[in-house]
Amino acid sequence: MSVITPPTDLLRQQDPQMADVLAGEAQRQAGTLQLSAAENFTSPAVLAALGSALANKYAEGYPGRRYHGGCEYADLAERAAIERACALFGVEHANVQPHSGSAAVLAAYAALLRPGDTVLAMGLAYGGHLTHGSPANFSGRWFNFVGYGVDAETGLVDYHQVQNLARTHRPKAIVCGSISSPRHPEYAAFREIADEVGAFLIADAAHPIGLVAGGAAPSPVPYADIVCATTHKVLRGPRGGMILCGSEFAERIDRAVFPFTQGGAQMHTIAAKAVAFGEAAAPAFTTYAHRVVANARVLAQELEGCGFTVTTGGTDTHLIVADPAGLGIDGPTARARLAAAGIVLDTCALPYGDQRGIRLGTAAVTTQGMREPEMARIAELFTAALTGNATRTRTAVTELTGGFPPYQE
Description:
Elements (H helix, E strand, L loop, with lengths): L6 H8 L1 H16 L1 E2 L9 H7 L10 E2 L2 E2 L5 H18 L3 E3 L5 H12 L5 E5 L15 H5 L1 E5 L10 H11 L3 E4 L10 H11 L2 E5 L4 H5 L12 E5 L10 E5 L4 H12 L5 H14 L2 H23 L3 E2 L8 E5 L7 H10 L2 E2 L1 E4 L6 E6 L1 H5 L4 H16 L2 H13 L7
Parallel strand pairs: 1-13, 5-6, 5-7, 7-8, 8-9
Antiparallel strand pairs: 2-3, 4-10, 9-10, 11-12, 12-15, 14-15
């Protein structure tokens, strides 16, 4: 029997430089605290699908309607991904081809809107995504976006403002969703406002969709005409996007994805999405999703005790947004000091003034097996990194992560 050389060994033989890069990244992920709210660790099964022979396959079109031959196994993979997504989220139709969350949103706009249409979405300064009207993005160039905000004291969406703006501007579509809100949107309220002004309702659920899959967050599916999401983040799938909708929008969505906004599907990624959907349907994922939220709540409380101001006073999700001004520093400075200590997270706009705070999430550390006691320890490490010796804190971070490897041998 011949011996099959592991792919990593083949890479080292062929391209030692790139092998070193990948090994270094694996060590970076394992040896530092991964608290970026948009990141997670996929399973080895998802990684196996990403590195499969489907990476070689060109498959423009949809199952049974391809523009290339030899798609019988590609069709099986995509049908499985579609069926699993529909069952997981209780929808009639799923398109699993979008290459990213932004691509999913672009396709949703293409399906429902025409250039120049008015869209109401969360303002960028309050947590709106680039696809919610940034002038640097296609959305801000092609459509007339009106931004709604949050209450200055609570940090929560001001639904009276949303309603008044909708009545004034009569948008063709309303987008609900945020990249930094730690609280659940009131989907029913958005639906009522959309119905009043005759607008489509698009839910950008890139962040909470994994919690929805695990029953730890309310679903936008019963309320939104179209739901756009990513398949990474809490969902623990490969980097990519998807769109969920009812049968009445299925054809419009499919045509908006292909051929309007994308070409050939990335079949290896679609297979990996199918694997992730299957994993998310298991009871263990439900337990995981609820632990993500429990960890986030503890960490938010501990950070407040360390002098941070946590927006909205806490969290209902995996997300935490905090202002380190009480420690005498701003968000970018805090991020740099934390990074030097091996604590990886992001900055984001705060819902007041023009300051920037820090944005973090508990999805990845929960995948590693960390629980509430580790959240308290992480808060201690935050304080040490921001007020003490970064080198000494880096050593403590290494000790903590050493007990929770991302992938067990």
